[in-house]
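S.,

As promised, the adenosine-5'-diphosphate-glucose run. Input:
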Amino acid sequence: MAGELKLQTPSRRLVLISNRLPISLSRANGKWQITSSSGGLVTAMGPVLRNRGGMWIGWPGTVDSPGMGRLMDAQQEKFGFSLAPVMLTQEEQENFYFGFSNKIIWPLFHGLQSLCDYNPAYWTAYEVVNLKFAHSILENSSSDDYIWIHDYHLMSSAKYLRGLGMKSPIGFFLHIPFPPPDIFHKLPWRTQILEGLLEFDLLGFQTSRHKRNFMHAVRTMLPELRPVGKGQISRIPLGGREVRVGHFPIGIDYKSFSINAASPEVEHQVIGLHDAFPGCTKILGVDRLDYTKGLPYKLDGFRNALQNYPELRRKVTLIQVVVPSREDIPEYHALKAEIERLVGQINGQFADPGWLPIHYTFRSLKRDELLAYYRACEVALVTPLEDGMNLVAKEYCACSEPDGGVLILSEFAGAAAQLRGSAIIVNPYDLEGVAAAINEACMMDASSRSSRMRKLQRVIKDQDIFWWVDSFLQAGISSELEDYPMLLQARQGQVDDSWWWESV
Ligand code: ADQ
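Predicted complex:
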């Protein structure tokens, strides 16, 4: 079946749909301000779509719409692909985005059920907005395009696209975990969500664990269906069609990270960081402000390391960067306050003249600055409580010095499935275990460090973002990488994507 599709449509245009466009608009003093959006999806897909051409459909971050069309057109040349805004009202944003997406699906799918607020108004808004997106996709695409919808905000969109008559194949990738059935079953709208997902032609998950959870939900809730296949791709026959279900671990643009991290501009900042923390092993944490990232546990684990291994005192510094995110949600304010309380407490408990245990930063970093942190820090501490993948872990390895940093990684990050052989794997809730891992990382000899890091880099380099896109599209429309010359060029380093990190 996939082969037939390839013959019919060898190089379809890619139409990518996500809740947010890769830029955010806001208005200050009557003037539009345009900034690039942050987050894993933008980092991953920006270069891909730019290299390949096509369209990105999503919300532009504002409810204000006069002149929007002109603004989008003006950005097109800069981006190398077109942007189509889906306008949402303030109320839709409240109930669909802050409500259903971020107060129900986000915590539930990360296994944090106690944080869910099952307000029925949120579900109504979710459906209304998914229908709105379906209309926009239909208006902005043709039957030759490959429609690739991203993430948990848009799980009902295929259902509405089918209702509006769309026949083309539609792919969907879930960037966050899919939970086990006992957690998924808590969702009052579980049947609608599951049936909505089965309207896509290809469903992609980050890991085999998340895929297995989904298949388990299908088997328990829809026992009449008979899925086949247990490998990377399973198939669910459904009347006259089938849904393919696979796991596709998202990668990074390895080459771009490793080349840029070794550039003179970054090197200059790396020297500055080494000078700023003389004689200290620098342990890096970079996390979006989010309760799934496990920041309070991480800080407690670090405190335990200083308590249990006194020889680490004055010899290590935790550089913790927290990137502002979802600041309009009250839980995130409380989390920020909790993090700052813990940082103050630990610094108060252990600081000595000339040594501060935790160097805490709460802001978005410029790209060079982020790369310099990745490059300069001898250890990375990545301990989410649950995470679809976690790109920071991969970016850290790509930027690491050739003689190697050490990655400490939560077993609940999707990245652990690929990196467990050479990272130090921890249970983020196990504070003694995290402390022991910090000690192990700081004490590791140079040859183990570099051999582990070389292995990590090999996996991340082989399974990079282009490999990921290619794997997904091959499964979706059976296209070869050669069908997409720009992708090939990007892999060969012929396309410059440094633009991506600059504010536009
Ligand atoms: P996130 O949870 O947003 O996304 P994550 O994997 O943690 O993504 O990556 C964060 C991204 O933000 C990284 O690419 C990083 O470079 C970038 N970033 C970090 N600091 C920044 C800064 N100061 N300014 C701008 N950007 C910064 C979701 C899922 C993840 C999954 C990704 C991709 O929750 O599990 O890995 O999608 O699928």
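Residues 38-41, 43-44, 175-176, 250, 286, 288, 323, 364-365, 370, 387-392, 395 surround adenosine-5'-diphosphate-glucose (CB under 6 Å). The CA atoms of residues 269 and 275 lie 10 Å apart.

- D.
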